[in-house]
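Researcher: Here's my situation. A collaborator sent me these components and asked whether they could plausibly form a single complex. I don't have experimental data yet, so a predicted model of the whole assembly would be a useful starting point for our discussion.
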Amino acid sequence: MKKVVLTFIIYFIFFSCATITTTRYDPVIMPDFMELQFGLSTKIQVEKQYKIYNDDVVQNYINSLGQKIAIHSERPNLNYEFYVVDSKEINAFAVPGGFIYVTTGIIKELDNEAQLAAVIGHEIGHIAKKHSVKFLQRAIIANYGIEFLTNLMGIKSKNRKSEITKIISTIGINFLFLKNSRENEYEADEQGAYLISKLGYDPGAMIGVQEHLMKLRKSKPNALEEFLSTHPISENRIEHIKEYIKITNIKGDNLNSDNFIKIKGRIK
Ligand SMILES: [Zn+2]
């Protein structure tokens, strides 16, 4: 009986995802240990769908760049992991718990390390502000009820893990690719610009990425399909970043092109 109810509820989570939006005022009740369990289960699904790019030099580079940025985030104690995946899609995404993926497709489009840092910083921003945690939480509460969520927190870790594995393997990784609210995107952009400036990178690189992607909308619309569905590129968003940089007076002038160009050259 329990199994039937679970499957039924999962069906509703899956089909109601598109209508769920979260805001910065959503209280987070899901504890970090549970976020991590959701994240680890999702990570397994992601790596079934996306192949990790087979080059240790590239992986070490992205991980060390990501770690340097993450130290300055609002959640510096998460065990972040950063990966390049072999995909022509121009995309980057964040899995709850601190797992961040950047495609070879997007790296090939970028001009310098500051821009790559901007992409990573934006994804760290989504994790720091718990955007997909809020989404998962809302979806679970809307469909299972809040009691289910609190019960899930209270059960033995092993049992919880198997329940979470069931949920994630049924809904798949689609929730990572749902359109974030504009507010969440603004928030992730702010975080990204702030984080990269802490390392001396030009925070304007955030704008450079957006402008470049806007141009690609015409020349490579297929490769951008997934990215556009999750990260709406708009003049408003660029204006918002410009305004944020101006108000906060964050600065930086490092672009670090040389190192980045070497890494980019390794990507086929
Ligand atoms: Zn985003």
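Model: Some features of this prediction you could bring to your collaborator: The first helix runs from residue 2 to 16. The pocket of zinc ion is lined by residues 122, 126, 180, 185, 188, 231 (CB under 6 Å).
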